[in-house]
Amino acid sequence: MGRVLIRPPSEAGSLLVEVFQGCNYNQCKFCGIYKGREQFKVFGVEEIFNQLNVAKKMYGDYYGTVFLTGSDMTCLPTEFLIAVLNKISQTFPSLERVTCYSSARSAIAKFPDELARLREAGLKRMHMGLESGSDKILKLMKKGTLSKTIIQAGRRIKEAGIQISLYVLLGLGGKDFTEEHVRGTVEVLNQTDPDFIRFRTLNILPNTPLYQEVKEGTFKLLRPYEIIKEQREMIAGLDVHSEIFNDHVSDYLDFEAKFPEDKPLTVRLLDRILADPRTKFIPPKELTEM
């Protein structure tokens, strides 16, 4: 099996630079991207520099953006990351931005001046999985962080001048905790006010611990209609200045909006979809890859 390279849909046109393989945490019950597939391994600086030199020879200045692949870039030492970012800037001086995935637990471990130095070196945006704002759900799913940490990390990243994109996983509370999922997630998003909010829909792969719970009936999945209703309630509760996207293969709807100005229209759209009797018969997606 080849290497696992993941990146957000918004980075589809970016040059992908491999910084590390696998996941440094890899305990989330809902995530099957790396389980049983790839061990955590950080590439050496010279290996990364070589990637950049080869990319420059092959593509010149074709790419305007770079995405650093790896599940949690801020788990790595700041000086290591700055060395990589400096090499990227030297190799591609006209880049618009460099972007990466991060986690709240590693980002909060960085001092504010470290994050500011990363921004000065060229890191312009971080993608981070909120998943849920409910501490109960975060604990059940072994996310490894709590809502207050996500809020603190998000604010610290923004204060450093780095854009933050938070990901919400619709359906993560199942039928038992859907109301708590909505309430907690809205609270965290409102307190963080991220630059971007991206919605994903829970899709359970067979290699995840949550898959067994679904088979045993201890975790009850939401139907597509219930997923859309859950998102409608989240959208209605938001008080943010964010760009919002449903832009993933797992989602049942495909849209983008800019809040707060597009909030009334987005709520009305979701209400119309929920009022359509055909919505209750949308079949669930059963994806084998994410």
Q: How would you explain this protein's 3D organization?
A:
With 290 residues, the protein is α/β, with parallel strands linked by helices. It has one domain (9-281): Alpha-Beta Barrel (TIM Barrel). Helices cover 38% and strands 17% of the residues. It is built from 10 helices and 10 strands. The strands form 2 sheets. An 8-stranded mixed β-sheet has the order 1-4-5-6-7-8-9-10. The protein has a two-stranded antiparallel ribbon with strand order 2-3. A hairpin with an 8-residue loop joins strand 9 and strand 10 (255-258). Helix 6 (147-159) packs parallel to helix 7 (178-192). The radius of gyration is 19 Å and the shape is globular.
Poorly predicted sequence stretches spanning 5 or more consecutive residues: none
Could you name the CATH class? Answer: Alpha Beta
Gyration radius from CA atoms, angstroms: 19 Å
Secondary-structure class: alpha/beta
**Averaging pLDDT over every residue, what do you get?**
95
Condensed summary:
The chain is α/β, with parallel strands linked by helices and 290 residues long. It has helices at 45-59, 78-91, 104-107, 112-120, 135-140, 147-159, 178-192, 209-216, 224-237, 263-275; strands at 15-18, 20-21, 41-42, 65-69, 97-102, 123-131, 163-170, 196-201, 243-246, 255-258.
Properties at a glance:
TIM Barrel, eight-stranded mixed beta sheet, 10 strands, two-stranded antiparallel ribbon, globular, alpha/beta, single chain, 290 residues, 10 helices, 38% helix
List the helices and strands and how they pair.
Blueprint: E1 15-18, E2 20-21, E3 41-42, H1 45-59, E4 65-69, H2 78-91, E5 97-102, H3 104-107, H4 112-120, E6 123-131, H5 135-140, H6 147-159, E7 163-170, H7 178-192, E8 196-201, H8 209-216, H9 224-237, E9 243-246, E10 255-258, H10 263-275
Parallel strand pairs: 1-4, 4-5, 5-6, 6-7, 7-8, 8-9
Antiparallel strand pairs: 2-3, 9-10
